[in-house]
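During data preparation, we tokenized the protein backbone, and the record follows.
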Amino acid sequence: MSDAFDERRRGLEEEYFHRKNKEAIEKLRQKMKVAEQAKAAGESSMRCPRCTGTLVETKFEGIFIDRCDNCSGIWLDPGEFAELAKKDSSNWFDRWWGGE
């Protein structure tokens, strides 16, 4: 008799987690859809970590960087700082970070 209850409990547990996984996947799809719509409209779905303003992609020295439309903070994605440092003709990046 306990085997039947154990099987029923396991079945309900699997059903619960299956439903939770479907809900999580649907939430991720909605977030991706919002991000795609914002990108198509030329807006960013990313928020400034400092003031929660909207980050606007701006081209600087041929590299796209993110600038907050509220506090004017500049946010660099991985590798953007290195690319800017390579383009720096006065090498102030190198001097600042101990290169020479």
Remarks:
- The chain has two domains: 1-43, 46-100.
- The domain at 46-100 is CATH 3.10.20 (Ubiquitin-like (UB roll)).
